[in-house]
Amino acid sequence: MIESPKIGIFEYFTKEEIDKIHNATLEVLEKVGVKIEEENALKLLDSVGADVDFTKKIAKIPPHIVKEAIKNSPNSILFAGRDSKFDLKLEGKRVHFGLGEGAIEYLDSENNSIRPSTMSDAENASKLADALPNIDFVMPLFTAQDVPKQVMPLYDLYASLTNTEKPVMVVDFGLDANYLIKLASIIVGGEQELKKKPLLGVYSEPVSPLTHGKEHTRNLMTFANAELPVVYIPSPASCSTAPATMAGAIVQSNAETLSGNVIAQFTKKGARFIYGADTSLMDQRTGVFSYGAPEWMIVNLAMAQLGRYYDLPIWSTGGCSDSKILDGQATLEAALSLFIAASSGANLIHDVGSYLNFGLTGSLELVTICDEIASMITYLLKGIEVNDETLALDVISKVGPGGHFLTQKHTIDHLRKEHWMPSLLDRQMRESWVKNGSKSLLERAREKTKEILSNHNPNPLSKDIEKELQNNLKDIEKEILK
């Protein structure tokens, strides 16, 4: 179990403002309602007292139902690794970092060219994340464009399951979630064992504004019944699929994710629901959904505070950029968004180093750079230990005015645990830097990435499990493509 010392430090709203957002959300759900395209979910909400119009597929949800769902939600969730030393406990302000999934292009940073992403890219991303010490959970980053589109999610999952021992999260692309669960269950010996060792989670989305699509709602209910972690959060764009005002966009986002939690908790009481939103804006000059906008960072802070208000585990976003290449803009936006998300105290921060070009392009070197950024952020947020030993009165007295601390045992004892040491950033004098090749951050990141991919070998599955996994993958593929 990873005992993360990382803590959130930002509270964006006053208590009065949080109450106003909460009450506005309840009003939206009760008076406007949400559209639900999955018939079983409509019937479920009708059975528990929601006002359901089956013709329009609109469910108006009274406040007491929303509150009961929140009450039934766990405030602590185990997200397990194949090796228990990578287990994550999602609660309080424990912060963990992980990749994203969905890039359809691979950036070759040496010549800034792009090509369609492949199964091999997803495997390499998972392998890299397995090796990097500040990446706590794994998503395959890329979507394999060299396999049939209908079964692409299966191959993405396979790429991660076979290349990391860390917890695995996958994106819900609409494929029946039972297939994903079946593959993951092979790793641990069956679906009942998977409930005890939940090494698979799913990230899914409603359709903004205020719509729960058929396939994603079905999969939300499937993961709830399977007792596996489920992130079900909206990604609206302010000025387009959400109000132009940030408060209004937050109210709508809150309504969408809380109504998803209603579906989850009444499907299975205690469903392992993770709260949040990926709300940004539509840039009015370009029409794009921005991945580097400060508005997105504001929503990360707001939703994390709301998540704690409801005492729910929290999902967030950081480490991505709108830049087309791995340049100064990319590292600026990645670093700032990661720091804001971590400072919010969110439990799972995804997209770390994963995205350029509005989520279309993936860069392995950016993942490596963001691992270093995450390491620095961890140091910044861990706090300072204050006790008799760290106050250092004895050694200050011993050295006295005009002395130095270089040779003191106290310095040797505390140097490494008190101070952050870079593994990628450069602190050489210029002469030494030139002598060692005058390498830029990107060049160093490229070298480190190549070294990891050449030399890191994730602990493999047993041959029997690997064979069973491959056989099931082929059987499911035949079933889907027939």
What would you say the CATH architecture of the largest domain is? Alpha-Beta Barrel
Helical proportion, percent range: 40-55%
Strand content: 5-15%
Largest sheet: 4 strands, mixed
Spatial sequence of strands, sheet with the most strands: 2-3-1-13
- Domain count: the total is 2
Total helical elements: 18
The outline comes out as globular
Describe the structure.
- This protein is of the alpha/beta class.
- It folds into two domains: 71-381, TIM Barrel, CATH 3.20.20; 388-418, no CATH class.
- It is built from 18 helices and 20 strands.
- The protein has helices spanning 15-32, 39-47, 63-72, 119-131, 152-161, 177-188, 191-196, 214-226, 246-267, 294-310, 328-343, 364-381, 388-391, 393-399, 409-418, 430-435, 441-455, 463-481; strands spanning 34-36, 51-53, 58-60, 77-79, 88-90, 96-97, 101-103, 105-108, 113-116, 141-142, 168-171, 200-204, 211-212, 230-232, 237-238, 273-274, 280-281, 315-317, 348-350, 361-362.
- The strands form seven sheets. It has a four-stranded mixed β-sheet with strand order 2-3-1-13. The protein has a four-stranded parallel β-sheet with strand order 11-12-14-16.
- β8 and β9 (113-116) form a beta hairpin.
- The protein is globular and about 80 Å long.
- Residues 2-6 have low confidence and may be disordered.
Key terms for this structure?
482 residues; single chain; 2 domains; alpha/beta; four-stranded mixed beta sheet; 47% helix; 18 helices; TIM Barrel; four-stranded parallel beta sheet
